[in-house]
Design goal:
eight-stranded mixed beta sheet, 266 residues, alpha/beta, 9 helices, Rossmann fold
Length: 266
């Protein structure tokens, strides 16, 4: 038993080693809840460079990505809250917004470390759970663009929820969720200010009802609001990461006029 305990302690220690990285930081709220993140400054002029905020999916919590760019600042936080520590959909726990509030602190601290210009462009990427978080927090943080891959839009009450995700959704939203946060179609219709340019990517065939209840319902809402967006339906089956981060960055540079000048510098 002693040897087993020692092995477990060593395993936990190895999992935490990434926190010793010079690029890793954390923020903390008044309750002592911490969010860890990796900030990789752009190799050239970080104070003038745009920010690429990367939100991971459910269960991808072992360490942040090591992704780096020459002309972009990269922020990669960890959401290890919620049920079993697998994620709280970048919003919070039991109906609260503690994770979203910590994420705002992460962005603020990163800008301070970088000495970012006041007009620095923020772009957000999220996949699956991270897609939900990217839409929600991208709007709150004033992002210029948001890229979502196979995102969740409607949580409790969806077919995806009933196929096994309900306990995780309830841990984040509570058992009687606010409709505005349970379904981002409601949130986006009530959002104040200028909306980000949304890039939406989905597989043609996935879990039952997923395409129509999730990504396409959001597209329908954007159509209703007469908002611009980029949509890609990939002719494959599954719940996959369809584009790499560099491919997503290239889309931002292609379709956001303020970033067009970066296209020629890679």
């Amino acid at each position: 038993m002693r040897k087993l305990a020692q092995t477990l302690d060593e395993g936990e220690s190895m999992q935490e080693e990434w926190k010793n990285d010079d690029f890793v930081h954390f923020v903390e709220d008044e309750s002592g809840k911490q969010m860890w993140f990796r900030l990789r400054p752009a190799l050239e002029s970080p104070e003038k460079s745009p920010i690429f905020l990367i939100l991971h999916g459910h269960g991808t919590t072992s360490r942040p990505t090591l992704y780096a760019e020459t002309k972009w600042n990269i922020i990669a936080p960890i959401d290890n809250f919620g049920l079993k520590g697998k994620g709280s959909w970048w919003i919070g726990e039991q109906g609260g917004h503690s994770t979203s509030e910590l994420l705002a602190k992460v962005v603020e601290k990163s800008k301070n470390i970088l000495s970012s210009n006041i007009d620095t462009i923020l772009c957000v990427y999220g996949s699956s759970m991270g897609g939900y978080g990217a839409i929600l927090n991208g709007c709150k943080l004033g992002a210029t663009a948001v890229y979502v891959n196979v995102p969740q839009i409607r949580l409790l009450g969806s077919t995806y929820s009933e196929l096994g995700m309900k306990p995780y959704f309830e841990a984040a939203l509570g058992t009687n969720p606010d409709d505005m946060y349970n379904d981002l179609n409601n949130f986006i219709q009530q959002a104040n200010g200028v909306l980000p340019l949304f890039f939406i990517c989905e597989n043609r065939f996935g879990q039952k009802d997923y395409l129509n209840q999730q990504a396409m319902s959001f597209v329908n809402t954007l159509n209703k609001l007469e908002k611009n967006y980029h949509l890609e339906i990939v002719p494959t089956s599954g719940h996959n990461k369809n584009l790499g981060l560099r491919e997503v960055r290239a889309l931002f540079e292609k379709f956001i006029p303020e970033l067009n000048h970066l296209k020629e510098n890679h």
